[in-house]
Amino acid sequence: MNIQENEIFLTLARTLSITKTAEILHLAQSTVSHRLKALENDIGFILVERKRGQKQIRLTQKGQEFISIAHRWNTLIEETHSLKSASPQLSLSIASVDSLNTTVLLPLYQKLINHTPKCRLKILTKTSPEIYELVEKREIDIGFVLREINSSNIIIEPILSEQMVVLRTVGDKNYKTVVHPSELDPLYEVFFNWSPTYLIWHNRWWEPLLSRQLEVDTIYLIIAAMLQDQRHWAVVPKSILRSFAETKIFVISELSDPPPNRVCYKILHRYPHSRDAQKEELINQYLNAIL
User: Fold this and answer.
1) Structural domains of the chain ordered from first start
2) Which tens digits make up the pLDDT trace of 253-276?
3) Which of 26, 169, 188, 267 has its CA at 20 to 30 Å from residue 50's CA atom?
């Protein structure tokens, strides 16, 4: 068993498609099939059920059981390379959704930048499904998401539950400390789809086809829209105000009938590499300090 054969099997176990596996790994389909057959010959049993004319494949029972072995084999290879490495510097890669990167996690990143000894830090902004895929493929160490997606290779841990509030500019004449959803004019809403449960709550109060005059997908677009017109408002997690408190431009109102809290999750690969425990310990140390 070599590194490429192992990677092909793990990707195939995730996609259940030789075509998709070939696309992801930038290989010819014939190469994928040939390497998979070589792996089966090497280990002495069949991993995949092949049926002519069917696009998707199925793992055999032994193929299912072999997934954890393949992950452990990758871990051993990683540990071997770590022993050969001349640099002891810790390298940490993190992916998060935009609304966490620009608000909740900024203090975490500042602490990591100032950490001693210095560590190499890579930060990505992705959607929740993309982050799950990156963690599963081990292209990042830790992910921060807003959705639970079941995966046998992913550990999901809730780290924060945030109250949702109404964000307004200081000059808004309709400002009240507590507001009922029916008092908010949907024509001036800056809509952000925070989660499926949030959307259900939102559609209970405002007709989907009539509201959402302005829909955005980043925090800074919410801010930009509200600065253009003081009548604009948005339902946001409470942490957003903390990020812009120094500007003294925005205020929040609590909702008398609020949506469900926004829950943030940390995700990790179930089969850690040699230095993953050290990375998680460092992240947890600073998360505990800021949350």
Assistant:
1) 3-84 (1.10.10.10), 91-159+263-290 (3.40.190.10), 164-259 (3.40.190.10)
2) 999 999 999 999 999 999 887 778
3) 26
